[in-house]
Design a protein that fits this description.
With 367 residues, this protein is mainly alpha-helical. Helices cover 70% and strands 0% of the residues.
Length: 367
C-alpha cells in the first residue's frame, strides 16, 4: 500500500509543480502582461476560476491553486474554483447519471461565480493566507526572458547540470507513462478511488464502474504537461532554469507539497480502515447533509463517491449531492493545504457554508 500512496503522491506533486513551471514560463515569456491583465479584472478571474473548476478531474483546480499561490488570481477566484469543482467525482457522475451531471455542472458553475462575486465585495483580504510578497517574480534582464527553439542545440551542446537533471527527470516520467510503468499496475485507476472505497463503486446490479476513462485523462494530461515542460527546459536559458524553475519552484515547493500530500493520503488510508462510511448514512436527511458536509472536508477522491452512487440508486435527493459537490474538492485542495493551511481552512469554511445553504434549501423545497 505504501508504494501506491507514493505513486499517488508523486502524480499529484508532478501535476502541481508542472503547472507552476508552465505558469512561470508563460509569465516570463510574455513579460507578465497576461497575469497583469488578469490581476486587473477580478470578475474575469472569478469566471475563469468557475470554468476551470467544472473541468472533470483536478487539473483545473491545480492550475487555479498555482495561480493563487503566485498571487495572479485572488481569493474570490479560488473560492469559485473550489465550489465549482467536483474533482474526480465528475467522471463518475458523467458515466452513471449523465443528464443530472450536466445540470449539476451548470448549477455549480453559476454558484461558483455568484459566491466568488459575493466574496469579492465582502472580504477585504483578497489573498487569504498568503504573504504580501508576490511569489511570481519577473526579472527584467535579457538573460531571463529570451527563448527560441533554435536555442535547443546550443543549450544541449553546453548543457548545465540543472538542465541535464530536469531533462532526465522529465524524460523519465514521459517514458514511464508511455510504457505503462506508472499506470500499467492500475496506479492511475487507484488514484481515482482507493481500495478501501472499492465497495462503493458497484451499482445496484453488482457491476464495478470502469475508471479507465479517468485514468486515461490523467495519463494524457500528464503526457501533455511533461511534453510542455520538456520544451521549456530545452529552449529556456540557464538563468530561467536555475533561478525560476530550480530555486523558486522545485527547491521551494517540492518537498513541502510532497510531504503534506503523502501524510494526508496515508492518514486517510488508515482512517478508512476503521470507518465504514456506509454505516453513517441515516434516513434523516439533515444528518446525511451534515455527514456530506463533514466528509467534504477530506481532500481526497473516493469517500465522496458514496453520495453519487446513493443518488444514482434513488436513495438521496439531488440537494445532498449538490451540497457534497460544493464542499468537496477531490485532490485539488491538497496543494492549497500544503502552501497555506490558513487559506485552506477559510476556503473550506466558506464552502461548507454555501453547501449547507444549498442543501437545506433543497431539503426544505423538496428537491
Amino acid at each position: 500500500m505504501i508504494d501506491l500512496i507514493l505513486q499517488q503522491t508523486l502524480i499529484i506533486t508532478t501535476f502541481v509543480l508542472g503547472m507552476m513551471m508552465v505558469i512561470e514560463y508563460i509569465n516570463i515569456q510574455t513579460r507578465g502582461l497576461w497575469s497583469k491583465k488578469l490581476q486587473k479584472s477580478p470578475i474575469s478571474q472569478i469566471i475563469m476560476g468557475s470554468f476551470m473548476g467544472i473541468i472533470p478531474g483536478c487539473l483545473g483546480t491545480y492550475t487555479m491553486v498555482s495561480l493563487y499561490v503566485h498571487r495572479v488570481v485572488m481569493f474570490p477566484a479560488l473560492i469559485a474554483t473550489l465550489i465549482a469543482t467536483s474533482g474526480d467525482e465528475a467522471f463518475l457522475m458523467f458515466s452513471t447519471i449523465p443528464v443530472t451531471a450536466i445540470k449539476l455542472t451548470i448549477i455549480l458553475f453559476l454558484i461558483g461565480i455568484a459566491t466568488g462575486i459575493i466574496i469579492h465585495y465582502t472580504v477585504k483580504n483578497k489573498f487569504v493566507g498568503l504573504s504580501h510578497k508576490s511569489s511570481l517574480p519577473l526579472h527584467r534582464h535579457e538573460a531571463c526572458n529570451t527563448y527560441h527553439p533554435r536555442l535547443i542545440i546550443e543549450n544541449l551542446r553546453n548543457i548545465s547540470f540543472t538542465r541535464a537533471l530536469l531533462i532526465a527527470g522529465t524524460l523519465g516520467i514521459l517514458v514511464s507513462l508511455a510504457t505503462g510503468i506508472i499506470d500499467g499496475s492500475h496506479h492511475l485507476n487507484m488514484l481515482m478511488s482507493s481500495s478501501e472505497n472499492a465497495a462503493f463503486l458497484q451499482d445496484t446490479h453488482g457491476h464495478n464502474h470502469d475508471h479507465g476513462g479517468e485514468a486515461d485523462w490523467i495519463r494524457i494530461s500528464l503526457i501533455v504537461l511533461m511534453s510542455a515542460i520538456l520544451y521549456i527546459v530545452a529552449t529556456a536559458k540557464d538563468h530561467f532554469l536555475q533561478e525560476h524553475l530550480w530555486q523558486h519552484i522545485i527547491k521551494k515547493h517540492f518537498l513541502k507539497i510532497f510531504l503534506w500530500t503523502f501524510s494526508l493520503i496515508l492518514a486517510i488510508h488508515f482512517l478508512n480502515q476503521y470507518i465504514n462510511l456506509q454505516d453513517w448514512i441515516s434516513s434523516n436527511l439533515y444528518i446525511v447533509l451534515l455527514i456530506a458536509l463533514l466528509i467534504g472536508i477530506i481532500p481526497e477522491s473516493g469517500p465522496h463517491y458514496i453520495f453519487v452512487l446513493l443518488f444514482a440508486q434513488g436513495s438521496l435527493p439531488i440537494s445532498i449531492l449538490l451540497a457534497s459537490s460544493i464542499v468537496q474538492d477531490g485532490h485539488g485542495s491538497l496543494p492549497l493545504l500544503a502552501e497555506t493551511p490558513k487559506g485552506f481552512i477559510w476556503a473550506k469554511i466558506i464552502n461548507i457554508g454555501v453547501g449547507a445553504i444549498a442543501g437545506v434549501l433543497g431539503i426544505v423545497f423538496g428537491f
